[in-house]
Specification:
Layout: E1 2-6, H1 11-23, E2 28-32, E3 35-38, H2 44-55, E4 60-62, H3 65-82, H4 92-100, H5 104-115, H6 119-136, H7 142-148, H8 154-165, H9 169-185
Antiparallel strand pairs: 1-3, 1-4, 2-3
């Protein structure tokens, strides 16, 4: 039986869901972002217990079709942004349509109605969060970050970074260095 879960965004979420399913005496076949497949039929009582347990981690079982589709869209967007090391296709609308078997206009309108935001803005915010993470870990140059996140140039990344954060990537990186110095002085 497939279960759909809202707000799964990382490996830790997968571990939490898998552990809670096992605590109920169930056997997870597969746990991915946004969904878990269990070998057995999950009773309503087990679903309630699972939902109660995973809510402590900010997760929630999804019960309706609209919620399932929204979570599938989010999952594909997360995979698109966070697996960008694999150089995802540039045409995201075509990619999403193929993955979910709906027209992009339908998916975009549905997402906007459910989220009060566009898919594009959601992608940009995730990309900027990923860029901030890459800057903080100091693994890559801005050129490499722009390439890995499918930006056409460093200037394009910098422009979006400044729109979202109010800072340039260089200033953001400098603030990190200043914070480190301040913490070392304590």
């Amino acid at each position: 039986m497939k279960l759909y879960i809202r707000n799964m965004a990382c490996q830790s979420c997968k571990i939490v869901v898998k552990d809670e399913i096992e605590k109920l005496g169930l056997h997870p076949k597969n746990v991915e972002l946004g969904e878990a497949e269990v070998k057995e039929k999950v009773t309503v009582e087990q679903q309630k217990k699972l939902n109660s347990a995973i809510r402590k981690a900010g997760l929630e079982l999804i019960q309706n079709k609209e919620g399932v589709l929204l979570e599938k869209i989010r999952k594909e967007i997360l995979e698109y942004v966070y697996n960008s090391d694999e150089k995802m296709p540039k045409n995201f609308s075509k990619y999403l349509s193929q993955k979910l078997n709906y027209s992009y206009s339908y998916l975009a309108n549905f997402f906007s109605a459910m989220q009060a935001s566009t898919i594009e803005k959601y992608i940009i915010s995730l990309k900027i969060e990923k860029a901030k993470e890459m800057i903080l870990f100091n693994e890559y140059t801005l050129t490499e970050i722009a390439y890995r996140l499918n930006y056409s140039s460093v200037a394009h990344l910098s422009s979006q970074f400044k729109k979202v954060t109010g800072l340039t990537p260089s200033h953001f990186k400098a603030l990190k260095k200043k914070r480190r110095i301040v913490l070392q002085d304590l």
